[in-house]
Amino acid sequence: MTAPLLAVDGLKYCYPGGVVALRDLNLKIRKGRKLAILGANGSGKTTLLLHLNGTFRPTHGEIRIDGQPAAYDRRSLINWRRRVGLVLQEPDDQLFAATVEQDVSFGPLNLGLSEAETRERVREALEALRMAPLAQRATHTLSFGQKKRAAIAGIVAMRPEILVLDEPTAGQDYWNYRTFMDAILQMLGFDAILFITHDVDLAVVYANRILLVFDGRLIADGPPHIVLGDIERLRTCRVLPTSLLELNMQCFPKTGRFLRAESLAQYT
Predict the structure, then answer these.
(1) What is the pTM of this model?
(2) Is-contact 212 234, C-beta < 8 A?
(3) Which domains does the chain have, with CATH numbers?
(4) Which tens digits make up the pLDDT trace of 196-235?
């Protein structure tokens, strides 16, 4: 079998003071995966994401890229982050240019692309994220939701192989998040996508695999109908079942069928 795009093996991470954030965590990210990471606040979700592009280095364990141990020298990290694009939860941590267009352009230009190719990537990303009308807007004047979409557009324009999103729908109204999640997950052609969310319905609709994290441990990793079908385990991990999840479980118990984004379109 082909090696995973990215693999986490026996990952443990301790913050200063001995606070253990991740405990013996194992994960394989393969091509075609759309993974939703669910868990309560403080369960280690964001800490895990910060290992996936080399921002954090494991206290114990190993990250592998295409089967090879990840390296942390400057050149290796640059190549790693070209392949794994991370969008942080707080957009102000990523936005720095004067206008939206300039900010989204920075990544492609930094990759050495031509101005023409950069313009095309920026146009595509801004249209996908519904930000094209705000291309010349000063970034500091944007709302939180608009800043979030601008930050995502900046990473999307770099076209990484793996897109990693921390709470991508935070601050978004229903129509905006449906539009850009459809674009990201169905149109833009990433090899794999991971996203943290507290919205179980979002995971039901868009993920083809669910990771359940609690107290720094990976409690479950599997298809949505298996992981989300264990309602008591969800409650133990402080993940609240929703009406859509309960509807799925009532309509399609143990079948593996879930209402997907295209199925929901007729109701929305």
Answers:
(1) 0.87
(2) yes
(3) 6-267 (3.40.50.300)
(4) 998 888 888 889 999 999 999 999 999 988 898 888 899 8
Tokens matching residue 122: 């920026």
Angle, helices 100-110 vs 115-128, to 10°: value is 130
Say how far residue 47 (Cα) sits from the centre of its chain.
Answer: 13
Spatial contact of 196 and 37, defined as CB atoms under 8 Å apart: yes
Structure confidence at residue 172 as a pLDDT band (50, 70, 90)? confident
Q: Which stretches of the chain are assigned E, i.e. beta strand?
A: 6-15, 19-29, 34-38, 60-65, 68-69, 84-87, 162-166, 192-196, 209-214, 217-222
**What is the distance between the terminal CA atoms of the chain, rounded to a whole angstrom?**
40
Q: Distance between CA atoms of 204 and 210, rounded to whole angstroms?
A: 9
| Residue from 106, 195, 188, 87 nearest 147 by CA | 87
Tell me the pairing of strands 192-196 and 19-29: unpaired
- Integer Cα distance of 228 and 3 in angstroms: 27
Strands 6-15, 68-69: pairing kind = unpaired
For tokens 């319905």, what's the residue?
201
3-class DSSP state of 148: helix
Q: What angle do CA 65, 129, 94 make, to 5 degrees?
A: 60
